[in-house]
Amino acid sequence: ILPSYQFNTAVKNTAGLFVEDNMDAVDLFVGSEGVFGIITEADLYVIPAYPLISSIVFLPNDGDAYALSRDFANSGVTPEFLEFFDSGSLDLIRSSRRDDPRFTGMPDIPEDAGSALFFDLPIDDNLKENFRRLEHVIAKHGGSLSNSWCGYELKDRQRFFAFRHAVPQSIFDYVARLKGASAPGINKMGTDMSVPLDKLDEMMAAYDEVITRNGLEYVIFGHIGNGHPHVEIILKDMDDLERARQAYMELAAKAIELGGSPSAEHGIGKLKVDYVRMMYGDDGVEQMRSVKRAMDPKYLFNPGNIFGGEAE
Fold first, then answer.
1. Residue whose C-alpha is closest to residue 217's, from 183, 185, 243, 255
2. Domains plus CATH for the chain?
3. Which of 41, 11, 46 is nearest to 29 (CA)?
4. Mutual orientation of helices 62-75 and 127-140 as an angle, nearest 10°?
5. Looking at 60-140, which runs of residues are DSSP E strands?
């Protein structure tokens, strides 16, 4: 009863039901968003932690930070992750630090910073050499380790991660204020698309072209190291929301065209079922429904998630 379509594992992807040859049945449940049942018990396996050092490097502009992210692959240094913050993201964080006591513990962002990259490195015998290599690459793009944040103690790393999460939190707070005032039906519009790294240039250009063409503003931040930055569209009213939905549909199609996914990590739920049909076609959606009907013929579990539809 398993679907016969090809599930894209070349990029981060949570769009549709996972399927592969000779798969374990448990893998059908993982990421299925509750459409097959309820997990009542799970075993948790803990692996040993290892020490990490966190760094946030500030660059003059978005182009410099993006170019540096691409040069990481050529530096011989492999970070645990690589996160990008454009100029609009830094402005949001600066504003949050002024107005929200939750973010007052963060250090001051340098006044001349126009963008940033955030990454972790293991504290091991290669650490000194890794920073030596990065020093040259960072300087090439207008940055400096002396003008960066760096810390390995828990309190420092927690502040850096507060910096990371200040961007989506600021957007959530902004949308909540709109809901309570002039636009009660509005919701946050942030992308969750991924593409292969060799297609990221084209996708980044598409983000700017499509969103700007629709008369909208945006910020970009997040997982640039694996081709999955988040684009948060800044909405002002319900008209913006409608244009953002149109832009989102166009961008989802572009991500799929480039060999990526319209939903890299946050799943589909009920709001993004159109993107599953866009990715797998009518036949793929019907194959998912066939599995649903076989395992949950009364459609008791999360009806409407992933592929929509009701029991026939």
1. 243
2. 8-38+184-297 (3.30.70.2740), 52-180 (3.30.70.2190)
3. 41
4. 140
5. 82-85, 115-122
Report whether 152 contacts 123 (CB < 8 A): yes
Q: Do residues 128 and 30 make contact, with C-beta atoms less than 8 angstroms apart?
A: no
Q: Where are the beta strands (DSSP E) in the chain?
A: 52-59, 82-85, 115-122, 149-151, 189-190, 217-223, 228-234
Residue with tokens 């990371």: 164
What DSSP letter does each residue of 190-255 carry, written as one string? E---B--GGGHHHHHHHHHHHHHHTT-EEEEEEEGGGTEEEEEEE--SHHHHHHHHHHHHHHHHHH
**For 108-145, how does the pLDDT look when each residue is reduced to its tens digit (9 = 90+)?**
899 999 999 999 999 999 999 999 999 999 999 999 99
pTM: 0.92
